[in-house]
Amino acid sequence: MSRVINPDSAGKERSHLTKAIVIALRALAKQTEVNEETCDLAAFIALALLRIDATIELSVQAWEKRGYWVKADKFRMEWMWTKQMGEQMRTALLGEDWGTVAMISAQVGQNLSKIKVPERHRLGTPWVGAHAILKKR
């Protein structure tokens, strides 16, 4: 029997989510007024950051099995900001504090400044309906 390889790893999901966040940040920066799309964009960013945080432990488990604790801790520290900013964004969005949403969006943009996504991408608009999902949680 051969090995079973999971093509949908936590690293691929994290990569996909970071690119989607960068696209959402670009679209959020173009918004001139608060409407449903603005709420969806901010909600998607918050949910994606929290999902990225959930993938960190999955990635680190393999390193800890082999005894690479320093590498695992360094990786956790590198992505620690995602949970904090995701929670802050969620709280600001539910409280309709748009100044804080803008500030957190800028901070997220700084943290993801190394992520390059071309203007003509194939990721679509993954943020559609994210505000309703955030309200349900």
Number-wise, the strands total: 0
In DSSP terms, counting alpha (H) and pi (I) runs of 4 or more, how many helices? 6
First-residue to last-residue Cα separation: 42 Å
DSSP strand content: under 5%
Tell me the count of domains: 1
Which stretches of 5+ consecutive residues score pLDDT under 50? none
Main sheet summary:
none
- Which geometry do the CA atoms define? globular
The arrangement of helices and strands along the chain is: HHHHHH
Determine the mean pLDDT.
Answer: 87
Summing up helix and strand content along with how strands pair, one would put the structural category as mainly alpha
Which bin fits the share of residues in helices? over 70%
Radius of gyration: 16 Å
